[in-house]
Design goal:
The chain is α/β, with parallel strands linked by helices. It contains twelve helices and twelve strands. The longest helix has 15 residues.
Length: 335
C-alpha cells in the first residue's frame, strides 16, 4: 500500500507518518518490559510492516537490555539492503544486568553516549544509525551542552545520520538548540497523555524540529478490545501493571474515552486504534507516530492511521468525548 511521507525536521529523511515501535519486542525480564515475547513473531511483524510500506523502525538500547536492537538487527539482515527501513535508536538509560528490575540510571555523559552508540551499532548490524536520540534527560549532573556536543561529534564522524532527543522539555531543547539544531523530538503523546501539545510540540514546529510521538495508543489502552479483564491477564513482569492509567479510577475513564471513538472509527471504516493514532497526527508539528506491534495482525490494526484524515467534525466530537470522560490531561483539540 502507498503511505504518504513527510520530511523529518531538518534532515534529508522523508518518513512514513507511522513507524514501527520496537519497545515490546525487547521482551520481558527487565523493569519496563511487556512480558514474554516470541522473537520469530517480532521479526515477522517487522517484515510485515516494512512490506506494507512503513519505512522506519524506532528502538532503544534499554529495550530488553539490548534484545530489541538484536531482534531489529536480525530482521534487517534478512532484507535486501535497498529495501531496509531507516533505523532510529536511543541512548542514556543504563541498567545493571545483575538487577534488571531496578530503574535504569539516566546518564548522558559523553563517554557513556559513545559506548552506547558503539554497542547499538554492533547489535543492529549497521554502519550508521539514521537517528540517534537521547532517551531521557540526564539525572547525574551532566550539562546538556556536554551531552549535545557528544551527539554532534558522533554525527560528524558519520556514526549517526541525525541527532534528536526524547522526553526533553522546552528549556532543555532550547539549550541543545543553541549548540546545534535538534533534528527531532520524541515526546509521549496520545488522547490520554496530551500535555506535549501545549509546549514541546509547538516549540518543535517553530524550530524546524521533527516530532515523532510515542505511545499514541497509550500502550494498548486505546485499542479496540482492551479491557479491565485484559489488565488482569498481563504478565507479572509487564510494566503496565504498575501504571496508574491501567488502574481504577483512571482505567474506567480511559476505556470510556476509547469507547467514544467507536462511531468515528465506524464512519471511516477503520479501527479505533487507527483513529487514536490519526488524532496525534492531526496536530500541527507532528511528523509521525511510533506504534508498537508484537505480531503482524497488530500492524494491520493501526497502519491505516497514516493516510486517515480526521475531519473538523471528528476532532470536535473527540474533543467533547475527552471533556465528558475526564480522561487524561492536556489540550483537547489541535489548533
Amino acid at each position: 500500500m502507498h503511505l504518504t511521507t513527510q520530511r523529518l525536521g531538518n534532515t534529508d529523511m522523508a518518513i512514513t507518518r507511522v513507524g514501527f515501535g520496537a519497545w515490546a519486542v525487547g521482551g520481558g525480564g527487565w523493569s519496563y518490559g511487556w512480558g514474554p515475547q516470541d522473537d520469530a513473531a517480532s521479526i515477522a511483524a517487522i517484515r510485515h510492516a516494512v512490506g506494507r510500506g512503513i519505512n522506519w523502525i524506532d528502538t532503544a538500547a534499554i529495550y530488553g537490555l539490548g534484545h530489541s536492537e538484536e531482534v531489529v538487527g536480525q530482521a534487517l539482515r534478512a532484507m535486501p539492503v535497498d529495501e531496509r527501513p531507516y533505523v532510529f535508536t536511543k541512548c542514556g538509560l543504563i541498567a545493571d544486568p545483575a538487577r534488571p528490575f531496578d530503574d535504569p540510571i539516566r546518564t548522558l555523559a559523553p563517554d557513556s553516549i559513545r559506548r552506547e552508540a558503539e554497542a547499538s551499532l554492533r547489535r543492529l548490524g549497521v554502519e550508521r544509525i539514521d537517528l540517534y536520540q537521547c532517551h531521557w534527560p540526564d539525572a547525574v549532573g551532566t550539562p546538556v551542552e556536554d551531552t549535545w556536543g557528544a551527539m554532534v561529534r558522533l554525527q560528524e564522524e558519520g556514526k549517526v545520520r541525525a541527532i534528536g532527543v526524547s522526553n526533553f522539555d522546552v528549556p532543555l531543547l532550547t539549550r541543545a538548540q543553541a549548540i546545534a539544531p535538534v533534528a527531532s523530538l520524541q515526546p509521549p503523546f496520545s488522547l490520554i497523555q496530551r500535555d506535549a501539545g501545549a509546549d514541546v510540540i509547538p516549540w518543535a514546529a517553530a524550530h524546524d524540529t521533527g516530532v515523532i510521538v510515542y505511545s499514541p495508543m497509550q500502550s494498548g489502552l486505546l485499542t479496540d478490545d482492551f479491557s479491565a479483564e485484559r489488565v488482569a491477564r498481563l504478565a507479572p513482569d509487564d510494566w503496565r501493571r504498575r501504571s496508574p492509567n491501567f488502574q481504577p479510577p483512571a482505567l474506567g475513564r480511559n476505556l470510556a474515552l476509547r469507547d467514544a471513538l467507536r462511531p468515528v472509527a465506524a464512519r471511516h471504516g477503520v479501527t479505533i486504534s487507527a483513529v487514536a493514532v490519526a488524532w496525534t497526527l492531526a496536530w500541527p508539528g507532528v511528523t509521525g507516530a511510533i506504534v508498537g506491534a508484537r505480531n503482524a495482525a497488530q500492524v494491520d490494526g493501526w497502519i491505516l492511521a497514516g493516510p486517515l484524515l480526521l475531519t473538523p467534525q471528528d476532532l470536535d466530537e473527540i474533543g467533547r468525548a475527552i471533556a465528558n470522560t475526564g480522561a487524561g490531561s492536556g489540550p483537547v483539540h489541535p489548533e
